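Suppose a colleague, Dr. K., hands you the sequence of a protein chain of 327 amino acids and asks what its three-dimensional shape might be. Before reaching for any lab equipment, you can write down a predicted structure in token form. Begin with the sequence itself:
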Amino acid sequence: MVLERVGKPLALRERPDPEPGPGEARVRVRACAVCRTDLHVVDGELDSVPVPLIPGHQIVGVVDRVGPGTGRIAPGERVGIPWLAWTCGTCRFCGSGRENLCDQARFTGYTQDGGYAEMVVVDARFALPIPQRLPGGDADIAPLLCAGLIGHRALRAAGEARRLGLWGFGAAAHLVIQIAIAEGREVYAFTRPGDLRAQEFARQLGAVWAGGSDETPPVLLDSSILFAPVGALVPAALASVDKGGIVVAAGIHMSQVPAFDYRLLWGERTIRSVANLTRDDGLETLALATRIPITTHGVSYPLAEANRALADLRSGRFDGSAVLLTS
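The predicted structure, expressed as tokens, is then:
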């Protein structure tokens, strides 16, 4: 499914099978979860989207061919392909364990073709081995490759918060809440005003409180994570946390943040963002999922119905994650 023009529906196209080069592997895609970042790509909300482009960056598949010098992976291995596709390995960020900030980084389904296809070629170093002990099938595991990874990184950025707010209860939040509760935290879920279905879903997953983003939680929180790409929620999230609290912006895109009174920030409150992810984030999250049962609540679509999946995500027609299947 190809994005041929930004802002237009994807087009179903036949292409020659891609061939892996040195250090690359070709992966037969089994499942690719649909991410809100895919909407940002399709809508042209990210800088310099190259077209034509195959979106998708939460991929589970099986290696079927490798180029020379791939090293550790071989045909027949099941792997996960995340957002981070390549880094230079030599800059100051890569050299200090912060490859997610590499200025030369490439991204799956954004700066290079992704997983809305039957095959994808990837840098073998960035293909994450799927642990054999990881429960669930391909469609269950695919959402972990971004919603899970970014959610886990955002949760760590939120510190040791006992009372945690989640703003926007979609693909990432419904995974993070399961990890947070397993760690003994209290979770307070914020949805679109009036979205009673999402609020009930949050309570079913263990939230001690769920309400609209226009509501005030019953207690001050220790930290809040913003998954909704709505800049106007930043002041609201700051108002929800106690002194010393942390507000984490977990999205790659956000609408403009409005001006707000300094008193919301005062008291050593912190605003920070989460940018991309590292391979270590991926390995840690997949290992964590073998110890903590995480249910991804996926809704499956055939690959050819990617446009319907994106439209359903945009309008909030499902809880959890959407997943494209190639067969």
